[in-house]
Design goal:
By secondary structure, this protein is α+β, with helices and mostly antiparallel strands. The longest helix is centred in the first third of the chain and has 56 residues. The strands form eight sheets. Strands 17, 18, 20, 21, 22, 28 and 30 form a seven-stranded antiparallel beta sheet that branches. 32% of the residues lie in helices and 22% in strands. The termini are far apart. The chain is globular. Bound molecules: ligand LR7 and manganese (II) ion (MN). It is a single-pass type II membrane protein. Pathway: Protein modification; protein glycosylation.
């Protein structure tokens, strides 16, 4: 009896298994076929929506359309002014503009002629926000959906970093569900205030597209913004890309172009800076006219292993053996008789590239960038130990370059951003998160150069920046290059105040014990150089260098000779004769030259604390005596 039962049971099992298999297969078959039909339908609907928007965009009229400025009057203006403190931008103007307004296509016209491959990776666009105002947030989402070809847009993730504005709760949920019933826009919410770094990490982890694109929550993506970035990542998965960032005016919401293209740099205080595209980068980009050397050929093949590369052929005269440079560069063609021919470089290849090619950049501003999703994680995503705001942009920039990637701006990809006057949100605990985050990045990535950061941030020395062991480990595991390599190869024009200079440190007038001092003035503006009692290394305002090019300078700006008896302003460095200085260590004088060639001595005259310095005829007086704190020449 027990045996029989046993058999019966086994039989039952078999039947059950078969039934289960049938059920499971049919269930999957049914659902899969259903999903794929739906997918096609959804794509069709998305394409329709995209085309419809494109067709009507140019014809739209109304306040703020075509990216126009909105000016308010009377009560509305007063209201906007009173809210400006809280929002740091004109929220009333923004609320009056359509959430899907039209903006001008500000790309260089040559961008429209660039052909991108039809097969491109798909994008997950991640928009992080904490208590963002309604209209800029949704305008960001609309601009992404309306200006991204549906086949490349995998999803838009609105990543809510624990906002507590009431309208960002169920009202936002309902708006999204109603406006984008196809589910292209998703909302994900953090369970605690994470800060923008961990919020982006949460978004990246949830995303499933091939490429991650991060945006701030007050942006407008412009026509054609997506394809050039996806195409570049398809070509080189290690490229981390920034669109050109256009200005959306915080007062009028006007969408304006950038004016001139820039790349990212940094101050030694680890703040981000914009700078003009350096000459070496412009040269690299117009590599169609690169000089004949082995390096460009080798590096080109390293970058694109599947390319065959020819040098430009110069002429060596058969009779005289004179070597003459090839005047007009040409490329090869052929005639139908199958003879080789020379032909002019097509203008799209020569001229266009200057306007359309990626521009290498030492750093990024931080908020708007694209990266291959897997590559983003391979090179260490972000430092999850960084809080709220600041520092992560330089961290990802240094790391990308040092660990085998590259950072580029894509001129044909344009996205507007509202540059706000201040932070419209709280910093929990009132911490200087930019300072502490920067300590983490300096300690992990900057090697001995972190000294230059601490010169500016003596206040941070000894502060607790938390545990960085995992990031140090990451750097080792990825076998990343040194910060010196980064400076030498990626940012060679970055001035290093205490290396490769004649002298540096405090510039002291010993008799008075007064030192050159910026008196806290902003180095990005022109101002007359000051003096103050020497702080003996305690103040970054007193750090000057006598550079190898004979400039008497700060990080970005140079002391400039104006005239006999005139004050000495600090102006941006030009390399001109009136910014060349000599120091005589025996006579203790510092001499400069006017544009007219007159040699004058740096002189503090009778000035006291908070006074100025002058250039005067050299007279051997005490007020013309100067010493540097450190001499690197012997
Ligand atoms: O706790 C927070 N949680 C968040 O989700 C704090 C902020 N945020 C969100 C916020 O809602 C916004 O969408 O993070 C985003 C960035 O904050 P912003 O807009 O206040 O920053 P910002 O534009 O003033 O600052 C720039 O530098 C930051 C350094 O940490 C970030 O990298 C920003 O993304 C970056 N913005 C840009 O690069 C846009 C171009 C501006 C320039 C230059
Ligand atoms: Mn921003």
């Amino acid at each position: 009896m027990p045996r029989l039962c046993g058999r019966r049971k086994r039989l039952d099992w078999k039947i059950l298994t078969v039934l289960a298999l049938v059920f499971v297969t049919s269930y999957f078959y049914y659902n899969f076929s259903k999903v794929s039909v739906n997918d096609e339908e959804i794509l069709h609907l998305r394409n329709k929506r995209f085309m419809e928007y494109r067709e009507k965009e140019g014809k739209r009229e109304g306040l703020g359309e075509k990216g126009r400025a909105v000016t308010l009057q009377g009560e509305e203006k007063a209201l906007a002014d009173s809210l400006f403190k809280k929002e740091a931008f004109n929220i009333i103007a923004s609320d009056k503009i359509a959430l899907d307004r039209s903006i001008p296509d500000v790309r260089d016209s040559r961008c429209r002629e660039v052909k991108y491959p039809k097969e491109l990776p798909t994008a997950s666009v991640i928009i992080i926000f904490h208590n963002e105002a309604w209209s800029p947030l949704l305008r960001t989402a609309h601009s992404v959906v309306n200006r991204s070809p549906p086949r490349y847009l995998h999803e838009v993730i609105l990543l809510d970093d624990f906002s507590d504005r009431p309208e960002l709760g169920s009202k936002l949920h309902d708006y999204v569900a109603k406006t984008w019933p196809d589910g292209i826009v998703k909302i994900i919410r953090t369970k605690e205030r994470s800060g923008l770094i961990r919020a982006r990490l949460a978004g990246a982890k949830a995303a499933t597209g091939d490429v991650l694109i991060f945006l701030d929550s007050h942006c407008e993506s412009n026509t054609g913004w997506l394809e050039p970035m996806l195409a570049r990542i398809k070509e080189d998965r290690t490229a981390v890309l920034c669109p050109e960032i256009d200005l959306i005016d915080k007062n009028t919401l006007q969408y304006g172009g950038t004016g001139s293209f820039s790349v990212g740099g940094f101050w030694w205080s680890l703040h981000f800076s914009w700078r003009p595209i350096p000459e070496h980068e412009q040269k690299r980009r117009s590599s169609g006219i690169a000089p004949i050397r082995l390096e460009p050929i080798l590096s080109r093949i390293k970058e694109f292993p599947n390319s065959v590369v020819c040098p430009i052929v110069d002429a060596i005269d058969a009779d005289t053996l004179e070597y003459s440079k090839n005047g007009g560069y040409q490329v090869g063609g052929f005639s139908w008789s199958l003879h080789f021919t020379w032909r002019d470089v097509p203008s799209r290849d020569l001229v266009h590239r200057k306007y359309t090619d990626p521009v290498g950049s030492p750093t990024m501003a931080g908020g708007l960038f694209a990266a291959d999703r897997k590559f983003f994680f391979e090179i260490g995503a972000y430092d999850p130990g960084m809080d709220v705001w600041g520092g992560e942009n330089l961290e990802i920039s240094f790391r990308t370059w040092m660990c085998g990637g590259k950072l580029e701006f894509i001129p044909c990809s344009r996205v507007g951003h509202i540059f706000r006057a201040s932070h419209p949100y709280t910093f929990p605990g009132n911490k200087d998160t930019h300072g502490i985050n920067s300590m983490r990045l300096a300690e992990v990535w900057m090697d001995e150069y972190k000294r230059l950061f601490y010169t500016h941030r003596k206040d941070l020395l000894g502060q607790d920046y938390g545990d960085i062991s995992e990031r140090v480990e990451l750097r080792k595991r990825l076998n990343c290059k040194s910060f010196k390599w980064f400076l030498d190869n990626v940012y060679p024009e970055k001035f290093i105040p205490d290396e490769n200079v004649h002298a540096w440190g405090m510039v002291r007038n010993p008799p008075s014990n007064l030192c050159l001092d910026t008196l806290q003035k902003d180095e990005k503006t022109v101002f007359d150089m000051g003096i103050y009692s020497c702080q003996n290394g305690a103040s970054a305002n007193e750090v000057f260098s006598l550079s190898i090019n004979d400039e008497l300078r700060r990080e970005e700006a140079c002391l400039t000779v104006v005239s006999e008896g005139g004050r000495v302003p600090l102006e941006s460095c030009t390399g001109a004769a009136n910014q060349k200085w000599k120091h005589d260590k025996d006579k203790l004088i510092i001499t400069g030259t006017t544009s007219g060639g007159q040699v004058l001595c740096l002189d503090k005259k009778n000035e006291k604390n908070n006074g100025h310095v002058y250039t005067e005829k050299c007279n051997g007086k005490e007020s013309q005596k100067w010493t540097f704190e450190h001499y690197l020449d012997n």
